[in-house]
């Protein structure tokens, strides 16, 4: 399998360096009230929708810094996909501007379902920062709990974060094709995109042959919060994904697939991310394309 780094052991899933991947709004509020140093990153982002900065300016968690998913967390779109891995120096600079240092506890959030927050969680971990958590339920969970919001953009002391890439496993097109037959490759897009009935973004519809459809919407409840680990394990087991097999995930451009990686992590199943995803796969006309449910 063509990967930049090996799949981690099952024991590596869940907590990393003693830090659970998720944090609930009340627990975060307690940390902030105790003035525990926390770097808050607002990464609200909408595919084809209004810029996330507009939501940030209307209200955000006090002290939060806006991070642009397109500009700060991904490289320029091209043959590598719509959201390829950023250059390590560029990502390092973006995180330093946001105040991230080597010892920072970072909490990332988006609107509600953690789709874009998970990509920042994954990226920080890929580049070597373990102390990062996702606010489960996002901005909606925070405001529904009655916690304060702000429209003030904080003054940020630059951090000293050093990007050390390759700390999580990734797939390229060759590795994804191999995993679809030798292991389990999950397609995190909506079912109609997987089947090739609808493709609103990329020039070709369908999926990687052998991939199994696991829309990320199934990882969360109606409130946008992740399902309990036991339900996630049950869901993925029904798709054949367990910690006994090599598992990977892809989507349209590597954003929602990072959400799948986080859900798999919560279920105790280590997995590799095909960062280029479908937007990279279709740039090579020799890559096969499947449609329908198979």
From TrEMBL:
Gene3D superfamilies: Rhodanese-like domain. The keyword Transferase applies. Residues 34-151, 184-290 form the Rhodanese domain. It comes from the Bacteria. InterPro entries: Rhodanese-like_dom, Rhodanese-like_dom_sf, Thiosulphate_STrfase_CS, TST/MPST-like. Coiled coil: none annotated. Keywords: Repeat, Transferase. One of its GO terms (molecular function) is thiosulfate-cyanide sulfurtransferase activity. PANTHER family: SULFURTRANSFERASE, THIOSULFATE SULFERTANSFERASE. This is Sulfurtransferase.
